[in-house]
Structure formats: C-alpha cells, structure tokens
C-alpha cells in the first residue's frame, strides 16, 4: 500500500512539474503569436498617409480601358491600355495652356484613331483628356505635403477641357477650397457644378453625385489644383493656380 502511495505521489509531482513547464511555454508563446498583429495594423495607416500624395488617376466615359502613371518620378509618363506615352512630347496646337493633337477644333473631332489634349502650363501637375476606344480624363502631379496645406479659404482660377466620343471643348472656371471645413465647390463653363470633400491633399465628390469629381492640391502650399470630373455625357479635366 505504501509503495502504491509513493508511486502515486511521484506521479502527482511529475504532473505538476509538467503543468508548470507547459504553462511557461504557453506564456512564452502568447506574446510571440501576438507580435505580428500590431505591425499589420500599423501598415494600413502608413499606406493611407502615402496615398495622400497620389491623386486618383482617371475617369473613363464608358469604362472600356485603363490609365496608369507607373513612374512616380515622372508625372508626364502615362500608360494607356499598356501603351506608354510621354505627355511632355505632345506637340500640337496650344490654346489656354492646353496642347492638343488629333482633336478637330472646328468640327466635332473625328480625326485619327487617338486624340489627346494635355495641360502643359505647370511643372507640378498634369491633367488631360484622351479619346481612343473610350474617352478618358486623367490627373497626376507632385502633391502638396499635408504639413503645407492652408487653413483658410483659397480660390483657384482653372482652365478646363472636356470631351465626348464626338466633340471636345476648352473653357475656364473658378474653384473655391475651404480647408477649414474641408469642402470644395466650383463652377466650370457650361454650368458644370463641382462639389467635393477635402481629405488631406486630395478631394472627391460623394457617391452618387450628379457630377463626379476627384483630384488634389499640388506644389508648395497648395498653390495649384488639378482634377477630373465625369457626368453622364462627358469627362473633363481642370488645372489652375491660386488667386
């Protein structure tokens, strides 16, 4: 009987030792398992901050193609449906800061298989429209650092261009950015009304807006603005400087 009790006591001691050892391993493993979680959670806001410096690139009228700006060091290098174009080399008629190739100025443009019009008056922002298998409006540039954004109201005089599959037109407009209440509003020629919310150095209209608009602020202290818009009938782009 004593022998059985002795064996039982040893078994209990071994069990306790094993349990203590297992508890220590479990305690060591817990922080190791949780270590990656904070780093994953931290990546999301970091990416968001980086994205503040990149305006959404394009609208297409019929959703038939894609535009990208792949080279972050060259705001003029545009890739359309896999084909790269250097916008700095567009050499066409110049009107109100826009250089145009292919579009017919006098009759709804039907010349050539590809027409393009680009705003070339700034080293900090480029916007334009392009017509090939679809009609695109695009924007790219050197975004203002969020630490340099104004705190009050800034008004911009802008030059704009828009197109459908059968015509295009260069015009002008005025846009007001209220950095205090984070709103943007404006009117372009032909009664195009723009309304958007400002988020950092970018702005965008609300979902379902009659005129969709998005873009950003460029150069030092948000001295320049660039953006694109879309209605049911046409797409357009605009750029300009603070008054």
Structure, described:
This protein has helices at 2-34, 36-51, and strands at 58-60, 67-68, 77-80, 83-86, 93-95, 98-101, 115-119, 125-131, 135-141, 153-163, 168-178, 183-188, 192-199, 202-204, 212-218, 224-230, 235-242. It is of the alpha+beta class. The protein has one domain: Porin, CATH 2.40.160. The protein has an eight-stranded antiparallel β-barrel. Strands 1-9-8-7-6-5 form a six-stranded antiparallel sheet, with no helix packed on it. Strands 2-3-4 form a three-stranded antiparallel sheet, with no helix packed on it. The chain starts with a helix and ends with a strand. Residues 1-56 and 105-113 have low confidence and may be disordered. It comes from Muribacter muris.
Can you give keywords for this protein?
243 residues; alpha+beta; Porin; 8-stranded antiparallel β-barrel; 6-stranded antiparallel β-sheet; 2 helices; 20% helix; Transferrin-binding protein B C-lobe/N-lobe beta-barrel domain-containing protein; OMP/PagP_B-barrel
